[in-house]
Structures are given as structure tokens and as C-alpha cells.
């Protein structure tokens, strides 16, 4: 299975082993080709689960992925094993091991988006709690670059892409109201505090591109750098945001997607793959369309993300899908 959405972890009830779907394909650090020959399921080490995104370095080595205990790990194909590469938080006491990592995410970190800068070899990271960070080619403790904009802290830093000509990083903050562990609350409440931003490493300046978004998630830059595609998970929509004249600043709805989207990646010829995490059933459609219901549930009882996600998974059924589209939203 091609890992296009959140590299969904598949957990076996027998031995609690989590598997990551890894395609074998030719690549550079930020784009996918369509020359997919086979896929391999690779067990994750140390009780970690939930690989969100992946990236390959400038030498084609990897993949690298972030996992639930705050580590970024690297696959060494010649040794058939994962090795630790980086962490996003210096606080590591009690982070690793086979336990519920969600309760310590704000301490241990939860790396989501990963992209290598092709020119410098640096790995840029969006951590749900630590903001935008960077770590050098040799790994280690990542350094924070941005954690707030105009006095409003990032609440759920999610995905990113890099313009390799300018070094500018485009990234999403999914919500300023709810943290990642309560992502179900973002959806059922109709929360619209999400933002699309950019960070220029030359000036160290963060700039707001769009706000009032409903769970902005995956983002990918076009091959020519003239526009971005990004998704809203709550509305299941794909958007196009223009970066260059004459349409700079304009935003268009390109597609209504058949399920909840997660990551977006561009392939070598400029097409985009959108990963769908799960379908949007009638019950969720009703709740999302009537946000007062979700907000009422949240006020009455805090949403336990693990239990709710398991319940919703049983109601809507498992589904993973990758949709290929061009820059105009055509399949």
C-alpha cells in the first residue's frame, strides 16, 4: 500500500506490533514518482506508533518518519533496521516505551511534517506542540524556528513544504483552540482557527497567508513554485492558493474529496497525491454540518481522542485512499 495519507499505522491485536507501509520508489527529498513497484511493511521499534509523514534525504536514504514518542527515526535499508535520528524536545524522561504517548505529547513532542532542504541537507519539522523546527544533516536535538505569530501561539502545527529555490517553508497550524491529541474536537466543533503560513529562514520572519481555516492539514508546493495546494480535513476540501502574480493571494476550491484528507505530496511531473485517511459517513456528516452538536458534546464531557477515534473507526469502517490530481483538481 502506498503511504500517502498519514502513513497510517496498522496495529495487530495479537502482538501489538505496528506496521508502516513503505513504497519502494525513486525519489528526491520532497517529491514522489509514479514508478511504484512494491510495498513493504516495516515494524516500528520501541513501542512507538503513529508515523505521520515521511521524507528522504538528498542522497535518497531513508525514509525518515516521526513517531508517537517524539522521535524522528531513519530506516537503514542495508541493515534492515530503524535508528534514532532526531528529537524535537530535550525532555525525554518517560517518553519512550509501549504506553499511551498521547498524554505526554506536549512534553515529549509529536513530529508530524518532515521535509529536507535539498541545498543545505537540513531537515525541517512541524511538531504539533513545538512548532516549526530544524535539525542538521547529522540529526540530534532540533532547534525551534517559530512558535507563534503576532502573539498567538501555534496550537497544532501540522504539515509543511519547502521552496528549494528560496528556502521558504510553507506550513499549517491546524487549530489554536485544540491540541493534536484532541483532533477529533477540531472536526466535530467546526473549529476555524487554523492558519496557513510561511517562514523565511533568511529573515527569520513568519508571515500569515490565510486564516479562519477548518483544520488545514497537508500542503504541497507546485513544481514551478507559483501556487500551493492544501486541504481542510473538516470540510474534506482541496484548495489552491496562488503565490505569484497575477493571481497572488487568491484562493480557489479545487475539489470536494470523498473522505477526510491528511497529507498532500507532489510527484516528479507536477501532479499531486492526496491521502485520504477515512471516509466521511452519514453520522459524521451530520455532526460536522451541525457544529453546535459537537460543541455541546465537548462542553458536557472532554473528548477522549483515543476512545472516540476507535468508536468512529468502528462506525465508518477502515479505508485508506490516495487520489492523484493535477494542479487544477482534475484526476
From TrEMBL:
| Residue stretches making up the Strictosidine synthase conserved region domain | 158-244
- UniProt-recorded Gene Ontology molecular function terms: hydrolase activity
Key word Signal present: yes
Key words, A-Z: Glycoprotein, Signal, Vacuole
Entry annotated with the keyword Cytoplasm: no
Instruction: Give the subcellular location.
Output: Vacuole
Task: State the Pfam families in the record.
Answer: SSL_N, Str_synth
- Entry's Gene Ontology cellular component terms: endomembrane system; vacuole
What protein family does this chain belong to? Belongs to the strictosidine synthase family.
Q: What is this protein called?
A: Protein STRICTOSIDINE SYNTHASE-LIKE 2
Amino acid at each position: 500500500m502506498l503511504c500517502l495519507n498519514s502513513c497510517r499505522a496498522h496495529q495487530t491485536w495479537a502482538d501489538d506490533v505496528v506496521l508502516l507501509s513503505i513504497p519502494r520508489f525513486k525519489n528526491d527529498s520532497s517529491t514522489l514518482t509514479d514508478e511504484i513497484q512494491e510495498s513493504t511493511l516495516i515494524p516500528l521499534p520501541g513501542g512507538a506508533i503513529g508515523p505521520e509523514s515521511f521524507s528522504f534525504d538528498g542522497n535518497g536514504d531513508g525514509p525518515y518518519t516521526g513517531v508517537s514518542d517524539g522521535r524522528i527515526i531513519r530506516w537503514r535499508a542495508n541493515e534492515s533496521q530503524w535508528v534514532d535520528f532526531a528529537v524535537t524536545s530535550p525532555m525525554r524522561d518517560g517518553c519512550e516505551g509501549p504506553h499511551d504517548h498521547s498524554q505526554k505529547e506536549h512534553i515529549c513532542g509529536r513530529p508530524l511534517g518532515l521535509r529536507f532542504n535539498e541545498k543545505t541537507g537540513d531537515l525541517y519539522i512541524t511538531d504539533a506542540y513545538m512548532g516549526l523546527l530544524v535539525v542538521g544533516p547529522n540529526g540530534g536535538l532540533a532547534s525551534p524556528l517559530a512558535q507563534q505569530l503576532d502573539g498567538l501561539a501555534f496550537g497544532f502545527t501540522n504539515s509543511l513544504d519547502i521552496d528549494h529555490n528560496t528556502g521558504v517553508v510553507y506550513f499549517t497550524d491546524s487549530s489554536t483552540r485544540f491540541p493534536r491529541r484532541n483532533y477529533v474536537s477540531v472536526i466535530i466543533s467546526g473549529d476555524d482557527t487554523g492558519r496557513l503560513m510561511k517562514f523565511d529562514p533568511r529573515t527569520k520572519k513568519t508571515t500569515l497567508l490565510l486564516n479562519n481555516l477548518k483544520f488545514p492539514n497537508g500542503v504541497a508546493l507546485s513544481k514551478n513554485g507559483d501556487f500551493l495546494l492544501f486541504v481542510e480535513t473538516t470540510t474534506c476540501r482541496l484548495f489552491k492558493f496562488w503565490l505569484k502574480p497575477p493571481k497572488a493571494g487568491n484562493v480557489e476550491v479545487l475539489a470536494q474529496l470523498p473522505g477526510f484528507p491528511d497529507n498532500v505530496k507532489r510527484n516528479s511531473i507536477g501532479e499531486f497525491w492526496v491521502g485520504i485517511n477515512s471516509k466521511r459517513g452519514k453520522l459524521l456528516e451530520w455532526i460536522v454540518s451541525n457544529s453546535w452538536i459537537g460543541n455541546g458534546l465537548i462542553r458536557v464531557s472532554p473528548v477522549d481522542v483515543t476512545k472516540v477515534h476507535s468508536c468512529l473507526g468502528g462506525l465508518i469502517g477502515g479505508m485508506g485512499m490516495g487520489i492523484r490530481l493535477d494542479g487544477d483538481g482534475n484526476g
